[in-house]
Specification:
It is a single chain. The chain has 214 residues and is mainly beta. The protein folds into two domains: 31 residues, no CATH class; 169 residues. Helices cover 4% and strands 47% of the residues. Strands 4, 6, 10, 14, 15 and 17 form a six-stranded antiparallel beta sheet that branches. A hairpin with a 5-residue loop joins strand 1 and strand 2. The radius of gyration is 21 Å and the shape is elongated. It starts with 5 loop residues before the first strand and ends with a strand.
Length: 214
């Protein structure tokens, strides 16, 4: 997309420069979209966690991952969570019940996850924003955001379709891009966790979690 080709001075008060662009022989004011916090859309640093396919656990209510914002000032906006069933590993699968919930405490134990950067020149993720797979403590459950079911049988037609589509999107469409840029906002001392409700070790699942920080 072309950049604005000109500008005009607006002089009430101290004055300011306003960008314009030539359209059909007339200079038109350039408008930029911003979110409710004043950030220009697309300007926030973007990160993601890639959680490779990990085995289900023969234990009910197993936490597979948690993400937590313990920073005193920064906001974490989760814009996509995709749960990706494994269709490579052969298993005699079953239907699994899952839930996505908010958390009120950071998870402990498990394996710490490293955030990937969408732009290698952007700021590294703040140390107070953390995530881990299969935490063994903490990650205290708050409000349940959604319940859902995914079959773990790799030959199940629904499982194959989900995998080919890049997984099941857990963020409601009404607040997720491209319809909305809001996502799930994690303020200070707020987090998310994904829980395997079903007691079974049949199958494997991975996740891709995309978020911004402001």
């Amino acid at each position: 997309m072309a950049l604005p080709n000109d500008s005009i001075l607006v002089t009430p008060g101290s004055g300011a420069t306003v960008a314009t662009h030539l359209i059909n022989g007339k200079e038109c004011q350039v408008i930029l979209n911003a979110d409710e916090f004043g950030h220009i859309l697309g300007s926030r640093d973007t990160y993601w966690y890639n959680i490779p396919s990990q085995v289900h656990v023969a234990s009910a209510n197993t936490i597979h991952w948690d993400l937590f914002n313990a920073d005193a000032a920064l906001l974490v906006r989760v814009i996509s969570i995709r749960q990706i069933p494994d269709i490579v590993t052969a298993v005699t699968g079953v239907a699994f019940s899952w839930k996505l919930a908010r958390t009120t405490a950071v998870g402990t134990g498990g394996s710490a996850l490293t955030a990937l950067l969408a732009d290698l020149s952007q700021t590294a993720l703040d140390a107070d924003i953390t995530a881990r797979s299969k935490p063994t403590g903490g990650a205290t459950e708050g409000v349940i955001l959604r319940n859902y079911t995914i079959h773990s049988e790799e030959t199940n037609s629904g499982t194959i379709i989900l995998a080919s589509m890049g997984g099941l999107e857990l963020i409601p469409q009404a607040i997720a891009p491209p319809n909305n840029e809001h996502g799930i906002l994690l303020r200070q001392n707020q987090g998310l966790r994904c829980v395997q409700i079903t007691n079974s070790a049949a199958g494997n699942t991975g996740w891709l979690i995309v978020f911004t920080v402001e």
